[in-house]
Design goal:
Blueprint lengths: L6 H17 L2 H8 L6 H14 L17 H13 L7 H14 L2 H12 L5 E4 L15 E5 L2 E8 L10 E7 L10 E7 L5 E7 L5 E14 L10 H7 L11 H18 L6 H30 L7 H24 L24 H8 L9 H11 L4
Parallel strand pairs: 1-4
Antiparallel strand pairs: 2-3, 3-7, 4-5, 6-7
Helix pairs in contact: 1-4, 4-8, 5-6, 8-9, 8-10, 9-10, 10-11, 10-12
The structure holds flavin-adenine dinucleotide.
């Protein structure tokens, strides 16, 4: 089974490859390749390189700095970036709040936020989940009560990724406690430096600060920082991903992981590892990946030609995130016992074991969250059962 790109798409692919070969800093690519953490400064640098080329926000309308690429071209761009080990840009600004501001923001909000997102001057985090509101997001309890030209915000958000480096947070808050669940919610943009905002870390079991809790204690938010109408925040939240909801298949990430597995097996060959016995598993994952890419490209092409897309993104999200976890497991197995040490050598601070093994366990633990974040697998199954199977 082969995926054949058109001549124009192949030309585009070459253009992207040439750009990455010339502009992606090699030391940054090397960090990404081995799963090492990438600093905010590194991400700012890379975002600005892309922005200079006009490619930081390919999916935005051209008048706001987008590229006008088709969904398939965006897929090609994504795959090439991952293959070259470019770090993904912050999704909160580029994929979530940016498109929402484009759709629901007024001119002042567009001017204030969009260029700053594109040039990595403003960093965002997402304040949706609360201790009692995850899958059932419409149960949010954080309140925003009008007081003159401002809202007074009180409550708590949880699992807020990147809050420790964010300048702003986009939040779902309850503005009408008497209204039915979804109807009394508004969408606020809140400056993280406002008095009364407090951020507390939450650590994942690989030791990384993966999330935070964000507390709001009488935080004053100007009403002009509301996106969309009052009590219509649910509509903004639902539209947040727009076309982005189609880009959830993680094909490019899976390709990168498969490449890593093949690299490891190549390097480990002859060092006592059971390379042959793992080959059948590599082949099985590679077939799953091909099926995922075919399905994803089929849906993207349909969307490019104007077809309405229904529950397909749920299938892509489910299969893509499960495949990442299967890739992780095989990578872990391929690396063998070198995946286990979490510490570095006391004498030299060097990795214990080969370079390629150091962050394999950490990556595997990190990716466990993929089947929860952005809508858990069970919730995706429910959507497919209802919308596709009519159950
Ligand atoms: C890596 C990661 C990053 C995240 N980043 C953010 C962030 O930046 N901002 C943010 O706001 N949130 C973030 N989240 C939170 C995420 O959105 C929630 O974890 C998710 O919505 C699930 O909510 P919950 O954890 O409250 O679990 P719950 O909703 O309580 O679910 C618990 C279990 O019950 C199952 N379940 C729930 N409802 C149903 C149902 N109707 N039918 C069948 N099964 C069901 C779920 O699948 C799950 O297994 C992040 C989560 C992860 C893992």
């Amino acid at each position: 089974m082969n995926i054949e790109l058109t001549a124009k798409q192949l030309e585009f692919q070459t253009q992207v490859r040439d750009f990455l070969a010339g502009k992606l800093p090699p030391e940054l690519a090397q960090r990404v390749k081995f799963g090492k953490s990438v600093s905010k400064d590194d991400l700012i640098r890379w975002t600005r390189i892309l922005n200079e080329q006009g490619w930081a926000a390919p999916h935005w309308p051209q008048e706001y700095g987008g590229t006008g690429w088709s969904l398939v071209e965006r897929h090609i761009f994504d795959v090439e970036c991952r293959a070259a080990h470019a770090p993904p840009l912050s999704g909160f600004g580029f994929n979530m709040v940016g498109p929402a501001i484009i759709r629901y923001g007024n001119e002042a909000q567009k001017a204030q936020f969009l260029p700053a997102i594109r040039n990595a001057e403003l960093w965002w985090c997402q304040g949706y989940s609360e201790p009692q509101a995850g899958s059932d997001l419409a149960s949010v309890r954080t309140t925003a009560v009008r007081d003159g030209d401002e809202y007074l915000v009180n409550g708590q958000k949880i699992w807020t990724s990147a809050a420790e480096i964010a300048d702003w947070i986009f939040c779902l808050v309850r503005t009408d406690p008497a209204a039915q669940q979804q109807k009394g919610i508004s969408f606020l943009l809140i400056d993280m430096n406002s008095p009364g905002v407090q951020v507390e870390p939450l650590y994942a079991f690989n030791g990384k600060r993966l999330w935070n809790q964000v507390f709001f204690d009488d935080v004053r938010v100007p009403i002009v920082n509301r996106l969309g109408d009052e009590n219509r925040g649910w509509t903004v939240a639902k539209s947040l991903l727009g076309d982005e909801r189609l880009m959830v298949s993680r094909v490019s990430e899976n390709k990168r992981l498969l490449g890593r597995i093949q690299d490891v097996l190549h390097q480990a060959d002859g060092q006592g590892l059971e390379v042959q016995s793992l080959s059948a598993k590599v082949a099985a994952l590679s077939i799953r990946l091909q099926a995922l890419e075919m399905t994803s490209l089929r849906i993207l092409s349909q969307a490019d030609s104007g077809h309405t897309i229904g529950a397909e993104p749920s299938m892509l999200k489910l299969k893509g995130s499960e495949l990442v976890q299967a890739m992780d497991e095989l990578l872990f197995e391929a690396v063998g016992y070198w995946a286990l040490p979490q510490d570095r050598s006391a004498e030299s601070d060097a990795a214990i074991g080969p370079d390629y093994a150091e962050y394999v366990a950490s990556g595997r633990y990190h990716h466990r969250g993929y089947t929860i974040a952005g809508g858990s697998s069970e919730v995706q199954h429910n959507i497919i059962a209802k919308q596709v199977l009519g159950l």
